[in-house]
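DM from R.C. (forwarded with permission)

"hey, sorry to bug you on a friday — could you get me a structure for this? deadline for the figure draft is monday and I only need the backbone to look sensible"
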Amino acid sequence: MAISLDRSLTALPDPSAPVRAPAPRSAPPPAPLNMPVQRLGHGPARGVRWPGRRTVLARLTAFGGALALAWFGIGQMLLVFGNETLTTLQILLLGIFSISFTWIALSTTQALAALFAPRTRDEGGPDTPPPGLCAILMPVYNEDPSATMGRLWAMAEGLAESGHAQGFEIFILSDSTNPAFWVQEAACHARLRQAMDGKIPVWYRRRPQNTGRKAGNLRDFVERWGARYDTMLVLDADSLMAPDTMVRMVRRMAAAPRLGILQTVPMQIGGQTLFARLQQFAGYVYGPLIARGVSAWQGLDGNYWGHNALIRVGAFARHCGLPDLPGRKPFGGHILSHDFVEAALMVRGGWQVRMDTDLGGSWEGSPPSLLDFTTRDRRWAQGNLQHLKVIGARGLALASRIHFGIGIGSYLMSPIWLALLVTGALLTTQSLIYEREYFSQPLQLFPDWPVFDARRMLWLFALSMGLLLLPKALGLLRMIASTQRRRHFGGAARIILGGMVEIVLSALFAPVLMLAQVRQVWEILSGRDSGWATQSREGGVMPWSEALLRYRWHVVAAVVPGTLLALFSPVTLIWLSPVLAGWFLAPVLARASGDERVGRFLGLL
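My reply, with the result:
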C-alpha cells in the first residue's frame, strides 16, 4: 500500500487547540527486559558460519577485484618513474597514491558485486509463525514535534487502512532538553493519540537524563518495556516508512528465526535546497546499485545504520548492551556511532544481520545545506574514528571488522588526499628549483637522462577517473533502461542532464568537504568532543558576509598556489584546476547549497 508523502509532511493541528482529556496512562505497563553490558575484550564462543556461494563470489569481486586493480595501478605508477632511483618525496607519493588508488578501486568493485545480490527474500508461508507485537520507535531530541508527529500520523493511518495496525504500537521516546519542546511534544502526542484512538496505541516517554544519547534512549526503552514486544522498528526523527514495507519486514523476520536486524535502504525525500536535491538525485540514481553491492558481499553478517531498521528485541537486549569505552573523550566514553557496534555484537552473538535492498518504501530527510552537512558529519567522524577502539574486539566476524575499517577509512581518506596534493606540489617545486645532475660519476661518458613517463601518468589518471565514474555511469544506465524510472525522471535526456550537473557540482563540493573532514580529524585527534547538537532540518541561504568569513581560507588556498602555478607550471595548474576551483568557489557553493531557488532552477530530483 502506498503512503502519501504530502500527507506525511503535513503538520498536525495546532497543539494549543482544545483536546479531549487523554487517557490517564501515557506509557504501557512496565515489562522490563534485562540488557547486560557486553565485554569487548571477552567475546562469546561464536560458531563458524560459512557464507553462501553468492556471498563468496561477491566478496571475491569486491575485495579481490580491488586488490587486483590496486596491484596493477601501483605497478603502473612505478613504471611512471622509470629507471630513476626514487627520492624520499617520490616514495612518499607512491605510498599515498597506493592507498588512494586502492580506495577508489574498492568503491568501484563494491558496486560491481551487485551482480551477486539476492533477487528475492522469503516472507514466509502457512507454516511461518505469526509475527508478534512490533513497537515503532521514534527517538526525538529537540525536534519540531508537529513534523515528527505528522510522519507518525501518516504511518499510523496507513497501517490502520491496510488492516495491520493490530500488530503495531507507536512509541515516542523523547530526549528533549528544552522545556518548550516538552510542552509541544505532550500536546502533539495527545492529539495524535486522540486521532488514533481505537486504531493503534500511541505512547510517549521523556527521559530526564540523556545518558548514552540515542543508544541510551533505546536501552532505557528495552529495560522498561522490552518484554512487551517481539520486534522494534527504529526510526529517526525525519524517517518515514510505507505501511506495506513495515508489514513485509515483520513477516520476513518471522520467516527467519535467526534474523536479528533487518536494515532497509532509506531514500532521501522532501529536500528543496540545492544541496538536498543533489543528495536525493545521487541517492536515487547511484544509491541502489551501491547498496546492492554492499548487501551482496556482507551477506548475513551485515551492518545497521541506526534507523529504518527492524530489530528482534530479545536478541538486541541479550547481545547489544554497549559498554563505555575506556579513556577520555573523544575516543573514550559513550559510543557515538552505536549502530555499527550493535550490528557487530549481534553477529558475534550468532544472529543474522541483513540488508534487503528490494523492500523500498523507506525514506529519510537530508541535510539542507553544506554547513548543515559538515556540522552533522563532525559527529559521524568522531563516531567512526572511535571505532579504532572497537575493531579489535574479541569474537567479531570478519565482515564486521571490514565495516569498521571502511567507516574509519572514509574519514582518513581526506587527510590522505590532502597529503597527496601537498606531496605533488612539493615535487613540482623541487623540479622547478633544483637542477638535475646528469653526470653523477667521475669520467662518466653518457648522461643519466631522467625517465618520467608523462603519457603513462596521464593514462593512469584517466583510469582513476574512470573507476570513480563507473558506478555513476552504471546507475544512470540502470535508470534509463527502466521505462518506469525513466518516465518518473522525465525522460532519458533529463536523466543524463541531471547526471552531468550532479557530477560537476559534486566535483566542486568534494575539495570543500575534504578540507572540512581534515579539520574534523585534526580536532578529534586533538581531543575535542563533538557534543550533541540538535540537527537542522530546514535550509536557509547563508549571508554573503558569513560565507566569505567562514570560507576565506579556502579562497586563499586556491588563489595563492593557483597564481604560482600559472606563473611557473601551467601544466600542473590544469591538473589541479578542479580542486582549486572548488576552494575558490567555496563561499558561493556554501551560500547556494541552502537556496531552494537554485535547487528548483537546476531541476534535480
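R.C.: lifesaver. The longest strand covers residues 134-140.
me: no worries. Residues 398-433 form the longest helix (36 residues).
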